[in-house]
Every structure is written in C-alpha cells, then in structure tokens.
Amino acid sequence: MGALIDLGAHPIYLTNRLAGPARSLSAMLQSTSDQYDVDDNSVVLVEYESGAIGILETSFLSSGSPFQLELYGTEGTLLVEEQSVRLKTDTDWVDVTDTVYEPMPMEQWCMPSIRQQNQV
Fold first, then answer.
1. Is 2 within 8 Å of 29 (Cβ atoms)?
2. Taking a C-beta distance cutoff of 8 angstroms, is the pair 7, 13 a contact?
C-alpha cells in the first residue's frame, strides 16, 4: 500500500464529506525514495459537483507533519492545526478551540456500549 491509499484515505473521506460528490480529479504519485516500492508522496486535486476544489496531500517522507485542515470560502476561513481551531471572518481571527470540543471516538462510540454492558 502506498502513501495515498494508506494515509490519503483520511483527507479523501473528509473532503468528500465536506464538499459532496466529486466531479473530476487529477493525481500525481511519486516514489522518491529507495526505501519504498510504492508511492511515498502524493497530491490529488479534486473538483466537486458543489463547485469546491480540494487539494489532498500525503507523504511517507514528511517527518512530524502536524494535522492541518484549511477551509477557504467566500465568507471566511477555518484553520484547524493539531488541537487549535481558528476562524476568520471579515478581518479578525478568532480562536474557537474551546467551543468545538468533541470527545475522542473511543469516548463517543465505545464507552457508552461498555457502560451499558456493565449495567446488565
């Protein structure tokens, strides 16, 4: 499995969830290192039926890259970087990190089931 299928699955499903069905795409996959027999670096440009454009990047080569999500629209910008969430409308950036907390998947889906089983 290469970088696009291994790591790229996450930005693929996320942008599809945000932008809707894809209309067209173009991808470039590279094998730049002798360390892997598959793509170790990839970029995908997706045009969505909604008119949005997504740029998906993934790599086995980038060491320590943070999680980042950038959404740019006609009414503002949303930046998610690791645990920080910032929103810009008009001219000011606002840190909204504390207002968008969601429990981790383990807390959301597994713990209620475990608690319910223990009550039986």
1. yes
2. no
CA dihedral 70, 108, 8, 37 (to 10 degrees): 150
Q: Is the dihedral of CA 90, 94, 97, 100 positive or negative?
A: negative
**What predicted TM-score, i.e. pTM, was given to this entire model?**
0.71
* Residues 6 or more apart in contact with residue 33 via CB below 8 angstroms: 40, 60, 61
The span from the CA of 26 to the CA of 72, in Å, is 20
Walk along the chain (120 residues) and give the pLDDT tens digit of each residue: 788 888 888 889 889 999 999 999 999 998 887 777 888 889 999 999 999 999 999 888 877 777 788 999 888 999 988 888 899 988 889 998 877 666 766 676 676 666 666 665
Which two three-digit tokens encode residue 19?
A: 């932008």
Cα 76 from chain centre: 19
Which letter does DSSP use for residue 107 in this model? I
